[in-house]
Design goal:
The structure holds three protein chains of three kinds. Chain A has a domain at about 75-275: MetI-like fold (Orthogonal Bundle). Chain A contains 15 helices and no strands. Chain A has helices spanning about 15-20, 25-40, 60, 70-75, 80-110, 115-130, 135-145, 150-155, 170-195, 200-210, 215-240, 245-250, 260, 265-275, 280-305. The two termini of chain A are about 30 Å apart. Chain B is mostly helical. Chain C has 22 helices and 14 strands. Chain C is α/β, with parallel strands linked by helices. The longest helix of chain C is centred in the C-terminal third of the chain and has 21 residues, at about 505-525. Chain C has a four-stranded mixed sheet. The chains are: A mainly alpha, B mainly alpha, C alpha/beta. Chains in contact: A-B, A-C, B-C. Chains A and B meet through helix 1, helix 2, helix 5, helix 6 and helix 7 of A and helix 1, helix 4, helix 5, helix 6 and helix 7 of B.
Chain lengths: ~300, ~300, ~550
């Protein structure tokens, strides 16, 4: 391939001239920026609710400031810290299992040659994503309960005594992870499959010609080509460590395993049951955001250190 | 110029047998709960209540579907949802692609600042009420626009799309620019045709999001003709498990919200969107691009 | 560039618009603030069966400022917006806002110069909707909710009308007072007698029942148990000596424990003490030593294998499943649970699966301390209607008139039962008897609970009316229904009460977590560990501040009862 020489303009109005060169790009960004300013930045004053004794009739601006009182109140609660610990535990465990599995399944799907088969199985694998957690929790109970649960019945048939999938703290985490993996794995492969289609065929052929085995092609061609996507997804997942959906822990959890199932989202949900606690939930949300963004910076920095682009 | 494909011998190795078996197992595990949902929705009342239904219907009964689909409001709300899914996906794809492409160009001045501004919103938001005020302020209250304009760009999707655009070989852009193309032309003539896989993917993600929209409709819509499908279906159900059951003791309503009805609701709300995927599958085909660079 | 400049201009102007719109909105000044002099001679009501309350005397110095008895004032085309819950169940040809019942209401209101408009809100998710409407000042003039505590908070924050000026006068809201009664109206008052909302009257306060498999009882020649120990024996025998030789029997499911707990309570003889211990299960567990014995009983049941091993994972559908497959011997559930058509006619289904089976409710057990029977009952209140401050005073006056009208027979009775000859006929006792249930369901029942705001479960002047009428709605099981309602209110009634102490909203979250965790661990632990675990529960409750709440409640009720 011929080398292409870039001609650079140099001059005193260097930056403005550069910007003019990219004018189309800026034009592309105008609607985007307008969108963000109007719908995301203008409402941002709402964050101050975390520092106020919010009265919805006075509005955000007229409600009195209370500084960090709300945070102090929240941080005093033992259960708040419990919910943080549980959120992190559940998220990290789920990530550790789900992340590699998703990639593996994507790679497996990629290897399938029979197009018809591939299309059909892909569609089936996406189904769990669309089934609501209410249904999943109901099915999980039927499967995993000790008294009459399908799985335990099978185990008993093999002479193994019943396992408390839903009532023992550790086993519950296991069950939670399994349900999440089951629900998310199919859908999660979409991104990787899209990435895999972008891998240059000719690279495979070059490797084949060089005598690489299937496995070697996988390791030396496929994985490096989708590495940017993997790293991006990993950073994104890590940067959501402090957040967790409400449905899964609420519906799968029960009173016996509160010690592991009470997470930030369920805690906020409890807060809001009696009366809307805007200040508290905004404060907790702020706490989550700050923590997540710190994790993001760390993960991003680490990614750059190992030579990837990162997100920022 | 086409690249000669080296035909690989098609033989059934142990490896591929195991592969196929594993995938089939996985597919079955994923299929089972959905079959469960369908069976419940098509089974008779007693069978469902007594827990006899597993993955095929017992006492076949279309009553639950009749119950749901006979209501014109359901169809009206489905029309609304289809409309916002189409308009929303188009809007979202448009904005996200612009943002992702522009910010993927390495030398763009201010790129870090603008990207940062976008990323910031993934973490910090004003909350439900201030956003509501803005939506009302710009005149979107009780309009379909409120269901897709404020939600148009998902930062997650933006980041992924940007990653893809970054990975496009620079040589493509440079070759086009030498021929005198502007950035806009590069995007529309070169990049987009080669990014069908990612665009289809993002389109799918957005479409599913819009299809499931219910909370926005709850907040921003007053006219019941504009309720979305999910909002209607949700209010048809007798309180999901999340609801505070004290309110459910009022003894109201005249319908028995059986499990069949609940499951039929799940089915009605997901089957239409499932049909969309196979249609998009053709964009996920391998080897669409890149021969053009050789030589 | 021009584009950018205009975009910037647009953005700035929007920002300015935003800021001008934020903050407190002045109380809406509707165009119709012109007050008309009450035209007392123009009584628009026609042929009432009930008295609508006397029209005012012509002496305006004794007439109240706001006239809220239906018919006592002719309004000047005042428009009011009333919330209406939408269950997405309108039959073909109607919509939730356009159907014969809304038309009927509008017609009746037009007669007194009120223009009625209905604002539909999805029934589920009503709370977030209400909150966003209140916060943005777009809530309807009559807003509804089932959660009173929110309204009380809105009132304290200064966003809701004090209705006492509209209701308390001797000539105001006469129909409302006649139908709801002072007690029910007072439920919506603060401790300073301000009235922040009108609650609906419950047709019956019957709450909970103990249900047993009668066929097994007969086959085993057992007497109806009257004490917890006897109950234990009965359940034990039903499971381990099952007359049908079933080995899948579940002994007991205690879905709600209201009546059972009453049988162990030590405070139950003193209404004041009971009131202090109500409000949340944790309060009773901490304040009433009898609750410990209740949990001990449950622990005994659990360890004897008479409860589902993972009963805390059970969903209501699973519970119903156990009932209809004939697997459960005893359960405590809501008053009419076994035969209620709206809960799925469980007994009927059971009898399809197991012919000859029968489930009956039994009278409450005798309290272990004083030997008397106690029944838990609901507080007399249901849905609450309130007026946000965005409504002008004339609008509020009209709203109260609408509610007053609803307390008349033209209003509530028609909404609930329909028209004579079309939907019902009177039987020999004067009870309305349904003519054609399917027709009623299609034509009227789908909306009746939501449009009728002042009564829960219907327009009935007395509880007996309700019982009689309801029994007719479960054909084939009329006697069961009558028995159920009778049993549920046998003995001394312990009513719910609706007081929430000031510290409760702050502390209840953490208390709830402790309560949820320990109410399960004290039941599932081995019998020998019970007392230690229960002591731990008490300690944990103290650690999250339950004493503060108990003290506040004690102070409040001491004052109230003295």
């Amino acid at each position: 391939m011929d080398k292409i020489v870039k001609i650079r303009h140099r001059g005193s109005s260097h930056t403005l001239k550069r910007m003019w060169r990219y004018k189309w790009l800026y034009i592309m960004l105008i609607p985007v920026i307008a969108y963000y300013v109007v719908f995301k930045y203008i409402p941002m004053y709402g964050i101050t609710i975390a520092f106020k004794d919010y009265n919805m009739f006075k509005g955000v601006f007229e409600s009195p400031w209370v500084g960090t009182d709300i945070f102090a109140k929240i941080f005093k609660s033992k259960n708040f810290w419990l919910s943080i610990r549980n959120t992190l535990t559940l998220n990290l465990t789920t990530l550790a299992v789900e992340f590699p599995l998703t990639i593996i399944v994507a790679l497996m799907l990629n290897e399938i040659r029979k197009l018809r088969f591939k299309k059909i199985t892909q569609s089936i694998l996406y189904l769990p994503h669309f089934v609501s957690w209410v249904v999943v929790a109901g099915i999980a109970t039927n499967l995993f309960t000790m008294q009459g649960g399908t799985i335990n019945n099978i185990l008993n048939g093999f002479g193994i005594s019943s396992i408390p999938f839903l009532s023992d703290n550790n086993w519950w985490v296991f069950t939670y992870v399994i349900c999440n993996v089951w629900k998310n794995i199919g859908w999660g492969t979409i991104i990787y499959l899209a990435a895999l289609t972008s891998v240059d065929e000719s690279l495979y052929e070059a490797a084949y010609l060089d005598g690489a085995s299937k496995f070697q092609r996988l390791v030396y061609v496929t994985l490096p080509c989708i590495k940017p996507v993997i790293v991006t997804m990993l950073i994104l997942s890590l940067s959501r460590m402090m957040s967790i959906g409400l449905d899964a822990p609420l519906l799968l959890g029960n009173k016996k395993v509160i010690g592991v199932s009470e997470v930030i989202s369920t805690y906020v949900y409890r807060l809001g049951i009696e009366s809307a606690k805007y200040s508290e939930s905004t404060a907790i949300g702020l706490f989550q955001s700050v923590t997540n963004i710190i994790i993001l910076f760390v993960a991003d920095r680490f990614a750059k250190l190992i030579g990837e682009d990162g997100i920022l | 110029m086409s690249v000669r494909r080296i035909r690989k011998k098609k033989k059934l190795t142990i490896g591929s047998v195991i592969l196929y078996l594993l995938i089939i197992l996985l597919a079955f595990i994923c299929l089972y709960p959905f079959l469960n949902v369908l069976s419940y929705s098509l089974s008779g009342y007693n069978a469902v209540l007594s827990g006899r239904v597993t993955f095929y219907p017992i006492d076949l009964d279309f009553g639950a579907y009749k119950e749901i689909l006979a209501r014109s409001q359901i169809w009206l709300s489905m029309r609304t949802t289809v409309l916002i899914t189409l308009m929303g996906t188009a809007t979202s794809l448009f904005l996200t692609t612009l943002a992702a492409y522009a910010l993927s160009r390495k030398d763009l001045p201010g790129k870090k600042f603008i990207s940062g501004m976008i990323l910031f919103t993934m973490y910090f938001s004003g909350g439900m009420i201030p956003t509501f005020m803005v939506v009302r302020g710009v005149g979107l209250y009780d309009t379909l626009g409120a269901l897709f304009i404020p939600q148009a760009i998902s930062v997650f999707n933006f980041i992924i799309m940007r990653t893809f655009f970054r990975e496009m070989p620079e040589s493509l852009e440079e070759a086009a620019k030498i021929d005198g193309a502007s950035d806009l032309q590069v995007l529309t003539r070169i990049i987009l045709p080669l990014s069908l896989a990612i665009i289809a993917t993002m389109g799918l993600f957005y479409a599913v999001g819009y299809w499931n929209s219910y909370f926005d409709a709850l907040l921003y819509i007053q006219n019941p003709d504009k309720f979305t499908l999910q909002l209607r279906l949700r209010s048809l159900l007798f309180g999901e498990e999340l609801n505070n059951s004290a309110a459910s003791l009022e003894g109201g309503g005249t319908q028995v919200m059986t499990q069949s009805l609940k499951m039929a609701t799940v089915a009605v709300s997901t089957i239409p969107i499932l049909i969309v995927y196979p249609w998009l599958q053709k964009y996920f085909v391998k080897g669409v691009m890149l021969g053009s660079i050789k030589g | 560039m021009k584009k950018r400049f205009f975009a910037l201009l647009l953005v700035i102007s929007m920002v300015l618009l935003m800021f001008s719109g934020c903050g407190k909105k002045d109380q809406a000044d509707s165009g119709d603030t012109k007050k008309t002099t009450s035209d007392k001679s123009a009584d628009k009501d026609t042929g009432d069966k009930k008295e609508t309350g006397s029209s005012d005397t012509s002496d305006s110095s004794t007439a109240s400022k706001y006239q809220t008895t239906y018919g006592s004032k002719m309004f000047d085309n005042v428009k009011i917006k009333v919330q209406l819950f939408d269950r997405s169940n309108a039959p073909e040809g109607s919509t939730i806002t356009e159907n014969r019942w809304t038309e009927y209401a509008k017609e009746q209101m037009k007669k007194v110069g009120i223009e009625l408009e209905f604002v539909p809100v999805p029934r589920w998710d009503e709370i977030p909707k209400m909150q966003s409407m209140m916060a943005s000042q777009t809530a309807p003039d009559i807003t509804l909710t089932y959660t009173m505590s929110h309204v009380e908070q809105y009132f304290k924050d200064g966003g809701v009308w004090d209705l006492s000026e509209f209701i308390d006068g001797p000539d105001q809201a006469l129909n409302m007072k006649a139908y709801l009664g002072e007690d029910v109206i007072n439920i919506g008052r603060t401790s300073k007698d301000e009235l922040y909302g009108i609650v609906a009257k419950r047709a019956t306060t019957a709450k909970s029942n103990l249900f047993l498999r009668k066929d097994w009882m007969d086959k085993l020649n057992l007497e109806v148990p009257t004490t917890p120990d006897e109950l234990y024996d009965v359940i034990y025998k039903m499971k381990y000596e099952n007359p049908d030789a079933r080995n899948t029997t579940l002994g007991a499911i205690v879905w709600n424990a209201w009546n059972l707990k009453a049988a162990f309570s030590e405070l139950v003889g003193d209404p004041k003490e009971v009131a202090i211990s109500l409000g949340d299960d944790a309060f009773g567990d901490y304040y009433d030593p009898g609750n410990r014995e209740y949990y001990r009983f449950m622990n005994k049941l659990y360890n004897a294998g008479l409860l589902n091993q993972e009963y805390y994972t059970m969903a209501e559908d699973d519970f119903k499943g156990y009932v209809v497959t004939g697997d459960v011997a005893f359960f405590e559930g809501s008053v009419n649970f076994a035969v209620d058509v709206l809960r799925g006619s469980l007994l009927k289904t059971l009898q399809e699966n197991v012919p000859g089976a029968d489930i009956v409710s039994i009278p409450p057990l005798k309290n272990v301390n004083d030997g008397k029977q106690y029944s838990a009952a609901y507080a007399a209140a249901g849905i609450m209607s309130f007026c946000p401050l965005t409504a002008s005073e004339e609008v509020v006056e009209a709203c109260m008139t609408y509610l007053d009208w609803m307390c008349t027979e033209e209003g509530g009775f028609v909404f609930y039962h329909g028209f004579e000859g079309e939907h019902y006929e009177f039987d020999e006792n004067g009870t309305p008897k349904v003519l054609d249930a399917t027709y009623n369901a299609q034509d009227k029942d789908w909306i009746r609970t939501d449009i009728f705001l002042v009564g829960n479960q219907g327009y009935f002047m007395t509880v007996d009316d309700f019982n009689a009428c309801t029994s007719l709605e479960a054909p084939g099981y009329e006697q069961h229904v009558v028995d159920n309602y009778e049993n549920a209110l046998t003995g001394i009634i312990i009513s719910d009460q609706t007081y929430t102490s000031p510290s409760t909203p702050d502390l209840i979250t953490d208390i709830g977590i402790v309560r949820d965790e320990y109410t399960v661990s004290v039941v599932t632990c081995p019998e020998s560990a019970f007392d230690a675990t229960y002591d731990e529960y008490m300690k944990e409750l103290e650690a999250v501040g339950i004493k503060t709440i108990i003290e506040e409640r004690t102070a409040h009720f001491n004052e109230m009862y003295n």
